[in-house]
Write a structure and sequence with these properties.
Layout lengths: L2 H26 L11 H5 L1 H17 L6 H7 L2 H4 L4 E2 L12 E8 L15 H15 L3 E9 L2 H11 L4 E9 L2 E9 L3 E8 L6 E9 L2 E9 L7 H10 L3 H28 L4 E7 L7 H6 L3 E3 H5 L2 E2 L13 E6 L3 E6 L11 E6 L3
Parallel strand pairs: 2-3, 8-9
Antiparallel strand pairs: 1-11, 2-14, 3-5, 4-5, 6-7, 7-8, 9-12, 10-12, 13-14
Length: 358
Amino acid sequence: MSKSLIGGIANRVLMLVAAAGLVLSYVSAFVNPARAWYLMLPGLLFFPLAFLNVFLLVWAILRRSKTFVIPLVALLPTLFFAGRYFQLPGEERQTGTDRTVKIVSYNLGRFAGVRDGNGKICRKQCADSVYAFLHRADADIICLQEYYTDDVRALRDGLESRFKGYDYDFYVYTGRSGCFGNVILSRFPIMEQGVVKFDGSANLAVYTDITAHGRQFRLYNCHFESYNISFPGIVKGMTDRKDILRETEEKMRHSLAMRPRQVDKVLKHIADCPLETILCGDFNDNPMSYTYQRLIRGHRDTFCEAGKGFGATYSVLWPALRIDYVFIPESFGAVSHRTPHIGFSDHYPVVAEFTVRD
């Protein structure tokens, strides 16, 4: 068998595998991962799989090979999904109008994003930097996840002293070394408020009813189950512990089983709410996921409506992972969306503006 024939077969196999992976990433958005957890991986890899198929398409065209049809067909549905990851610059929209609301959603990572020269966590320095950013952002509504504090009294005192002019609501879990949870701050009056707890998890969703510019809506600040894995830890563990991959698989299967139940619990809560709803927070899932596909129904993704460039919000493996969102009601209009690259957490904040329509 000639080398050219072997090379041709290998090329076709590579194209078919890459195309199949991309097709499975489309399917993963519509399949509950609790029933088929293995489909989660193609969904997570949508961005690199799409890039690989684009590379193979260009490569085949340059070689004048008829195999260009394989990646071309696989890439066609990407036209419907690529906008969830990347947006071309569009027409500038007017901001700061009398019916505009500015919102910030930010996973703070328990203020563990700043360390000294010895690798020790500097929570106070990190917290001060975060507060300075939030003051500069000058948002009407602030939604924080993984907010860390010593105790509930310190939390109340800190919010009242640092965010004058804001109403606030929060729910935190108390651990051995402090409290952590979700916080909502609003310049608009907060009416009814509450929490949606998730069984067997420290993750949660805090909600408040807010009236802004004559319209009342319910805001959910969500933090869904994470994978609880560390990519650097996996690489390190593979050399030290042979069971690290099995443990990683178990953690991922556990989170993939829990997150759909958490999403369904929030959706059931929304179904019983007579108001329009805004969903924001750390969903711990990418746009090619069952989580995104379920929650976006009846809402607009502010990034897809008004974002520019890459929308990734997780600093690790940027720009492949977008897991933090702001979803607004379909009757509202997105004005702007950005993700400032600040290094106070492993997440980037989401800063969005939307108009409240009559």
